Amino acid sequence: MAVRCCAEPAPARLLILADSAATRYSVSTCAACGGAVIEYYSYDDWDTGDPAGYEKYWWWRMDAGDTAAFREAVTACPAPLDADCPCPVHRALKQRTPRPLPPSSESPYDKAEVPRTRFTVDEDGAIRWTSP
Ligand SMILES: [Zn+2]
Ligand SMILES: [Zn+2]
Description:
By secondary structure, the protein is α+β, with helices and mostly antiparallel strands.
């Protein structure tokens, strides 16, 4: 299995931001390290079921401390696993993916580097990804 947040990731979906024929975008928390991985997949032809077959994918990771705070922020969402949920958390996080973009999506699936991201909750409660 690919190294993502830690050596032996045990991910569970926390938030699904897109789940369409062309795009998958979700946040999973890891029971092993307490961190999280944000995954964004895009494919041009069809879903082969094999991650290595995706045309494009980007990953980011969050540290355990940030993940705990993120989990807290997501409690404002009534339906975290519904990509069509219209709540402010979904709307804000869907709007743009984290920065920076990872290096080439042509890197082998197992070796792709996973950059770190953070997030900010503004005073009005709006949430957004921020660079570390
Ligand atoms: Zn982990
Ligand atoms: Zn929501």
